[in-house]
Amino acid sequence: MTGPIAAIVLAGSRPGADPLLAGSGVPTKALLPVAGQPMLIHVVTALRAAPEVGAITILAQDSAALAAEPGLAGIADLHFATSGEGISSSLAAALPPGDDPLLVTTADNVLLTPAMIAEFLRGAVDSDVAVAMVERDVLLAHYPESRRTWLKFRGGWWSGANLFRLRGQRVLPLLDFWGRIERDRKKGLKIIAAFGPWLLIGALLRLFTIQQGVARAGRRFGLAAKVVPMSDPVACIDADKPADIALIEAIFAARGEAAIGRRL
Fold first, then answer.
1. Where does the MobA-like NTP transferase domain start and stop, copy by copy (predicted)?
2. Could you tell me which CATH class the domain 5-263 is placed in?
């Protein structure tokens, strides 16, 4: 990568009521407070602190409401764009021209750190599509109480870490395909099956690793696709459920205590 990479934060609302918002008085998940401030603030702060990241765009149906959040005032090179209903179509419309790379994350990826961003972008070099993932043993060795959706392959079970690198307009066919299956995003086998019977059979029989499976899926679209294994177990802990938020706040508290210890 020769210069800073542009970043998009997906901060929209999915159809239907979000149980996390019940009784909160907050209009959208991105503004739900976690560890004392809205989720979105944590994510944007981490991105802005990463020297590899350039312009940041918040993508949401009601981008004006997010732009009015006081905690985002004064953050350099921060922009807002209005999305459509679907993640894939909205992201496709926001892709940079040509082959310029784009970093994508989500507003509920509240434990994101500059170190995670740097590790992911180093691992994503020379790819058209890269996906950050955490292997189950890495997570459960530290947070056995965490409940994730796992993809089972030879050599490990993997969970997504809400970090993606996309190579500009090259990925449009993949996003179009994803738009047709994203409703099943939490159903691992359905996602794998959508890429064809060989990939499904290979996953079921553990014939290949997840790196090999993702590379094979990418070739279907003429893309160099790779998985970037993340070393920090919290990279795959996002704020989907009340139990997630409780764990995230405990992790933030531990981070604060560690920082105090380093200063003493």
1. 25-137
2. alpha beta
